[in-house]
Amino acid sequence: MDNLQRVEHTIIAENIVLAYNNDEPIIQNSTFKIKSKDFVFITGPSGSGKTTLLRSLYGGLYIKSGKLEVCGVELFKNIKNSKLNLLRRHLGIVFQDYKLIKEWSVEKNIILPLLINGYSNEVCTAQMEKLLAHVKLSHKTTKYPLELSGGEQQRIAMARALAHNPTLILADEPTGNLDDYSSEVIWNLLRSANEQLGMTVVVVTHRVPHSLGIQHRQLNIEDGLIYEIS
Fold first, then answer.
1. What is the number of alpha carbons within 13 Å of residue 67 lying toward its C-beta?
2. Would residue 184 count as lying in a domain?
3. What percent of the chain has pLDDT over 70?
4. For a 10 Å CB count at each end of the chain, is N or C smaller?
5. What is the C-alpha to C-alpha distance for residues 54 and 42, in angstroms, rounded to an integer?
6. What is the count of structural domains for the chain?
7. Does residue 30 lie within any of the structural domains?
8. Burial bucket for residue 122 (CB in 10 Å: 0-12, 13-18, 19+)
9. Roughly what angle, to the nearest 10 degrees, separates helices 106-116 and 150-162?
10. How confident is the prediction for the chain on average, in pLDDT?
11. DSSP secondary-structure letter at 5?
Protein backbone atom coordinates (compact mmCIF):
# COMPACT_ATOMS: atom_id res chain seq x y z
CA MET A 1 0.00 0.00 0.00
CA ASP A 2 2.81 2.44 -0.84
CA ASN A 3 4.17 2.80 2.68
CA LEU A 4 0.75 2.44 4.33
CA GLN A 5 0.48 -0.64 6.49
CA ARG A 6 -2.05 -3.34 5.68
CA VAL A 7 -4.61 -3.49 8.46
CA GLU A 8 -7.48 -5.75 9.49
CA HIS A 9 -9.74 -2.76 10.17
CA THR A 10 -9.90 -0.07 7.49
CA ILE A 11 -11.47 2.36 9.97
CA ILE A 12 -11.16 2.49 13.76
CA ALA A 13 -13.01 5.22 15.68
CA GLU A 14 -12.73 5.40 19.46
CA ASN A 15 -14.79 7.92 21.44
CA ILE A 16 -14.63 10.47 18.64
CA VAL A 17 -16.18 13.92 18.94
CA LEU A 18 -16.86 15.99 15.81
CA ALA A 19 -17.85 19.65 15.69
CA TYR A 20 -17.35 22.70 13.50
CA ASN A 21 -15.15 25.32 15.16
CA ASN A 22 -16.33 25.69 18.78
CA ASP A 23 -19.94 24.80 18.12
CA GLU A 24 -21.89 22.12 19.95
CA PRO A 25 -20.66 18.64 18.98
CA ILE A 26 -22.43 16.94 16.08
CA ILE A 27 -20.98 13.51 16.85
CA GLN A 28 -20.35 12.68 20.51
CA ASN A 29 -18.14 10.00 22.08
CA SER A 30 -18.82 7.43 19.36
CA THR A 31 -16.91 4.21 18.79
CA PHE A 32 -17.07 1.84 15.81
CA LYS A 33 -14.86 -0.30 13.58
CA ILE A 34 -15.08 -1.09 9.88
CA LYS A 35 -13.17 -4.15 8.71
CA SER A 36 -11.30 -4.46 5.46
CA LYS A 37 -13.73 -5.40 2.63
CA ASP A 38 -16.84 -4.37 4.61
CA PHE A 39 -19.73 -2.70 2.79
CA VAL A 40 -21.23 -0.17 5.22
CA PHE A 41 -24.15 2.24 5.01
CA ILE A 42 -24.23 5.32 7.25
CA THR A 43 -27.81 6.45 7.80
CA GLY A 44 -29.68 8.93 9.96
CA PRO A 45 -32.10 11.87 9.79
CA SER A 46 -31.24 14.98 7.79
CA GLY A 47 -28.73 17.06 9.76
CA SER A 48 -27.69 14.16 11.98
CA GLY A 49 -24.04 14.35 10.94
CA LYS A 50 -23.69 11.75 8.18
CA THR A 51 -21.68 13.96 5.83
CA THR A 52 -19.75 15.38 8.76
CA LEU A 53 -18.64 11.88 9.71
CA LEU A 54 -17.69 11.07 6.12
CA ARG A 55 -15.60 14.25 5.89
CA SER A 56 -13.63 13.20 8.94
CA LEU A 57 -12.70 9.92 7.25
CA TYR A 58 -10.66 11.67 4.55
CA GLY A 59 -9.29 14.48 6.70
CA GLY A 60 -11.78 17.12 5.57
CA LEU A 61 -12.70 17.70 9.21
CA TYR A 62 -10.53 16.77 12.17
CA ILE A 63 -11.88 15.18 15.33
CA LYS A 64 -12.11 17.31 18.49
CA SER A 65 -11.17 14.38 20.71
CA GLY A 66 -10.89 10.62 20.69
CA LYS A 67 -8.98 8.57 18.12
CA LEU A 68 -9.66 8.07 14.41
CA GLU A 69 -7.57 5.76 12.25
CA VAL A 70 -8.11 5.17 8.52
CA CYS A 71 -6.04 2.60 6.60
CA GLY A 72 -3.57 2.56 9.45
CA VAL A 73 -3.14 6.36 9.48
CA GLU A 74 -4.23 8.28 12.56
CA LEU A 75 -6.09 11.45 11.57
CA PHE A 76 -5.58 14.43 13.85
CA LYS A 77 -5.35 18.19 13.46
CA ASN A 78 -1.58 18.43 13.10
CA ILE A 79 -1.06 15.50 10.75
CA LYS A 80 1.64 16.17 8.16
CA ASN A 81 0.33 17.04 4.72
CA SER A 82 2.61 14.41 3.19
CA LYS A 83 0.98 11.69 5.32
CA LEU A 84 -2.53 12.94 4.56
CA ASN A 85 -1.80 13.09 0.83
CA LEU A 86 -0.43 9.55 0.93
CA LEU A 87 -3.61 8.33 2.61
CA ARG A 88 -5.82 10.08 0.07
CA ARG A 89 -4.04 8.27 -2.75
CA HIS A 90 -5.69 5.13 -1.36
CA LEU A 91 -9.16 6.64 -1.15
CA GLY A 92 -11.86 6.99 -3.80
CA ILE A 93 -14.34 9.74 -2.88
CA VAL A 94 -17.74 10.27 -4.49
CA PHE A 95 -19.37 13.59 -3.61
CA GLN A 96 -23.08 14.35 -3.80
CA ASP A 97 -22.34 17.39 -6.01
CA TYR A 98 -19.88 15.43 -8.18
CA LYS A 99 -16.92 17.88 -7.88
CA LEU A 100 -15.79 17.27 -11.43
CA ILE A 101 -13.40 19.85 -12.90
CA LYS A 102 -15.70 21.66 -15.31
CA GLU A 103 -12.85 22.96 -17.51
CA TRP A 104 -11.63 19.40 -18.13
CA SER A 105 -13.06 16.79 -20.44
CA VAL A 106 -14.56 13.55 -19.14
CA GLU A 107 -11.35 11.78 -20.15
CA LYS A 108 -9.10 14.12 -18.15
CA ASN A 109 -11.37 14.01 -15.08
CA ILE A 110 -11.14 10.21 -14.91
CA ILE A 111 -7.39 10.09 -15.61
CA LEU A 112 -6.49 12.61 -12.87
CA PRO A 113 -6.16 10.16 -9.93
CA LEU A 114 -4.18 7.79 -12.14
CA LEU A 115 -1.71 10.53 -13.00
CA ILE A 116 -1.39 11.49 -9.32
CA ASN A 117 -0.55 7.87 -8.56
CA GLY A 118 2.15 7.79 -11.22
CA TYR A 119 0.62 5.45 -13.81
CA SER A 120 1.88 5.54 -17.40
CA ASN A 121 -0.13 7.21 -20.15
CA GLU A 122 -0.91 3.79 -21.63
CA VAL A 123 -2.33 2.49 -18.35
CA CYS A 124 -4.27 5.73 -17.81
CA THR A 125 -5.92 5.48 -21.22
CA ALA A 126 -6.73 1.78 -20.90
CA GLN A 127 -8.26 2.19 -17.43
CA MET A 128 -10.24 5.26 -18.49
CA GLU A 129 -11.70 3.43 -21.50
CA LYS A 130 -12.60 0.39 -19.38
CA LEU A 131 -14.35 2.49 -16.74
CA LEU A 132 -16.26 4.56 -19.29
CA ALA A 133 -17.58 1.31 -20.72
CA HIS A 134 -18.64 0.19 -17.22
CA VAL A 135 -20.59 3.41 -16.63
CA LYS A 136 -22.11 3.22 -20.14
CA LEU A 137 -20.59 6.54 -21.25
CA SER A 138 -17.90 5.56 -23.78
CA HIS A 139 -19.49 7.99 -26.25
CA LYS A 140 -18.94 10.96 -23.89
CA THR A 141 -15.12 10.89 -23.71
CA THR A 142 -14.56 14.36 -25.12
CA LYS A 143 -17.55 16.01 -23.46
CA TYR A 144 -17.26 18.42 -20.53
CA PRO A 145 -19.15 18.07 -17.23
CA LEU A 146 -21.62 20.87 -17.94
CA GLU A 147 -22.60 19.10 -21.16
CA LEU A 148 -23.74 16.07 -19.17
CA SER A 149 -26.87 15.37 -17.14
CA GLY A 150 -26.63 15.03 -13.36
CA GLY A 151 -26.81 11.26 -13.61
CA GLU A 152 -24.04 11.19 -16.21
CA GLN A 153 -21.83 13.46 -14.09
CA GLN A 154 -22.23 11.19 -11.09
CA ARG A 155 -21.35 8.15 -13.17
CA ILE A 156 -18.17 9.93 -14.31
CA ALA A 157 -17.42 10.84 -10.68
CA MET A 158 -17.86 7.18 -9.78
CA ALA A 159 -15.47 6.12 -12.56
CA ARG A 160 -12.91 8.67 -11.32
CA ALA A 161 -13.17 7.34 -7.76
CA LEU A 162 -12.50 3.78 -8.92
CA ALA A 163 -9.79 4.60 -11.47
CA HIS A 164 -6.75 4.03 -9.24
CA ASN A 165 -8.09 0.90 -7.50
CA PRO A 166 -8.39 2.49 -4.04
CA THR A 167 -8.46 0.61 -0.75
CA LEU A 168 -11.50 2.53 0.52
CA ILE A 169 -14.47 4.09 -1.30
CA LEU A 170 -16.31 6.91 0.49
CA ALA A 171 -19.58 7.94 -1.16
CA ASP A 172 -21.88 10.74 0.00
CA GLU A 173 -25.48 10.19 -1.15
CA PRO A 174 -24.20 8.88 -4.51
CA THR A 175 -27.69 8.27 -5.91
CA GLY A 176 -29.64 10.90 -3.99
CA ASN A 177 -30.72 12.96 -7.01
CA LEU A 178 -30.33 10.44 -9.81
CA ASP A 179 -32.70 8.72 -12.20
CA ASP A 180 -33.31 4.99 -11.78
CA TYR A 181 -30.92 3.98 -14.58
CA SER A 182 -27.97 5.98 -13.25
CA SER A 183 -28.72 4.80 -9.71
CA GLU A 184 -28.59 1.18 -10.82
CA VAL A 185 -25.25 1.75 -12.58
CA ILE A 186 -23.79 3.34 -9.43
CA TRP A 187 -24.97 0.56 -7.10
CA ASN A 188 -23.69 -2.12 -9.48
CA LEU A 189 -20.26 -0.46 -9.56
CA LEU A 190 -20.10 -0.19 -5.77
CA ARG A 191 -21.16 -3.81 -5.37
CA SER A 192 -18.55 -4.99 -7.91
CA ALA A 193 -15.83 -2.89 -6.27
CA ASN A 194 -16.55 -4.61 -2.99
CA GLU A 195 -17.20 -8.17 -4.14
CA GLN A 196 -14.74 -8.48 -7.03
CA LEU A 197 -11.98 -6.01 -6.14
CA GLY A 198 -12.11 -6.31 -2.35
CA MET A 199 -12.52 -2.59 -1.70
CA THR A 200 -14.00 -1.39 1.57
CA VAL A 201 -17.09 0.70 0.77
CA VAL A 202 -18.73 3.29 3.04
CA VAL A 203 -21.88 4.98 1.74
CA VAL A 204 -23.83 7.82 3.33
CA THR A 205 -27.48 7.58 2.35
CA HIS A 206 -30.93 8.46 3.63
CA ARG A 207 -32.31 5.22 2.21
CA VAL A 208 -30.63 1.82 1.99
CA PRO A 209 -31.57 0.09 -1.31
CA HIS A 210 -33.65 -3.04 -0.82
CA SER A 211 -32.32 -4.93 -3.83
CA LEU A 212 -28.57 -4.40 -3.49
CA GLY A 213 -27.96 -8.12 -3.18
CA ILE A 214 -24.84 -7.92 -1.05
CA GLN A 215 -24.05 -8.51 2.60
CA HIS A 216 -23.68 -5.17 4.34
CA ARG A 217 -23.68 -3.37 7.67
CA GLN A 218 -25.61 -0.28 8.71
CA LEU A 219 -24.40 2.40 11.12
CA ASN A 220 -27.08 4.88 12.16
CA ILE A 221 -26.55 8.35 13.62
CA GLU A 222 -29.12 9.76 16.01
CA ASP A 223 -28.81 12.47 18.65
CA GLY A 224 -25.07 12.67 18.05
CA LEU A 225 -24.45 8.96 18.67
CA ILE A 226 -23.45 6.24 16.22
CA TYR A 227 -24.83 2.76 16.70
CA GLU A 228 -25.12 -0.35 14.53
CA ILE A 229 -28.45 -1.64 13.24
CA SER A 230 -28.42 -5.43 13.12
1. 7
2. no
3. 97
4. C
5. 9
6. 1
7. yes
8. exposed
9. 20
10. 92
11. P
